Amino acid sequence: MREMRQAIAILGFALLSACATPVVQGGDPAGDDPYEGVNRRSHAFNKGLDRAVLRPVSKGYDAVLPEGLKYNISSFSDTVSLPQTIVNQILQGRLGDAGRNTLRFSVNTIIGFGGIADVASDLGLQKDHTDFGATLATWGVGEGAYLELPVLGPATQRDVLGRVVDLFTDPLRYSLSVPHRQAATQVKLASGIGRRAEFSDSVDSVFYESADSYVQLRLIYLQNRRFELGESASQEDELDLDLNTEGF
């Protein structure tokens, strides 16, 4: 209950903050960027972190770990993220998808040795993830301004709020012991390193070969996120947060 009260308080505060700050208007992903100065400083930090740590670690990860172990890490990370996806799909009214992912979680947990094997995909139950940022989009909350967070990378005001709420609405947070939660977090981090290795050429192209890596990353993130959520540029004016919205 304490965690739920914290989540509600954070949700209310973040929504109030979003309504009190500038938001992106119009459909051009490379257009208005009210926090560009702060974002660029975060981008410079993230780029330095990638150059000094993430890129060399991901190359070592890819070179040292056998393919089977990398598969196990990716599969387990996917499995432990499913309960949170199920919660958000229920909140989005996607009950069929929630039921399918519940079955996927059960199959991989029971038959897939706790999730280290992705048996469900072999049975036709493919990966399908979502988050509370997508839930907010379903509820009609606009994306707000673009933000690049230190370490966490690109986001929007809506997605930042979604990430905060997701911290408190993950069922595994309340059902696993502290050591098991820490182990799950470590596996997710390892899986992230694996994705950095998998998409190394694309990431390097954006970070180190672009004329302006900040603008390039912002453009790619916003386009991909809008496509993922089914939001087109023509819809954005209707979806963006309104500074004059009643109730805030």
Fold and architecture overview:
With 248 residues, the protein is mostly helical. The chain has one domain. Helices cover 68% and strands 3% of the residues. The chain is built from 12 helices and 2 strands. β1 and β2 form a beta hairpin. α6 packs across α7. The relative contact order is 0.18. The N terminus and C terminus are likely disordered.
The SS-based structural class is mainly alpha
Helices, by number, come to: 12
Strand content: under 5%
Oligomer: single chain
Rounded to the nearest angstrom, the radius of gyration is 19 Å
The total strand number stands at 2
Keywords:
248 residues; disordered C terminus; 12 helices; globular; disordered N terminus; 68% helix; mainly alpha; single chain
Brief synopsis:
This protein has one domain.
Task: Reconstruct the topology from this structure.
Blueprint: H1 2-19, H2 36-64, H3 67-91, H4 95-110, H5 119-122, H6 132-138, E1 146-149, E2 153-156, H7 157-168, H8 171-175, H9 178-198, H10 200-209, H11 213-229, H12 236-239
Antiparallel strand pairs: 1-2
